Amino acid sequence: MASETRIDVSINGETRSVPAQATVSALVREMGFDPARAKGIAVAVNDAVAPKGTWDSHAVRFGDRIEVIAAQQGG
Questions:
Q1: Residue 33 CB burial class (10 angstroms; 0-12, 13-18, ≥19)
Q2: What pLDDT score was predicted for residue 73?
Q3: How much is the pTM?
Q4: Most buried in the list 30, 47, 60, 70, measured by CB within 10 Å?
Q5: Domains, the chain, ranges and CATH?
C-alpha cells in the first residue's frame, strides 16, 4: 500500500498535516463545514481572502497560513 504524501500547513494558528493535493474546500470540510452551504464562512490564505468560487480549485501548498472564520450569532 502506497503512503499518501502530506504537507504541513497552519490552520487557524495550528500546524496540521494535510494531503499534498488538498484544496481549500477540503480543509473547510475537514473543519466540519459544508463548502456548498458556506454562508458566513470566510477563508484567507497567506493573509489574502480566498473567494468562495475558488475554493474547489485553490490547492494549498507547504507552509501556507490558512484562516477559516465562521460567523456566529450571539452577543
A1: middle
A2: 72
A3: 0.85
A4: 60
A5: 6-70 (3.10.20.30)
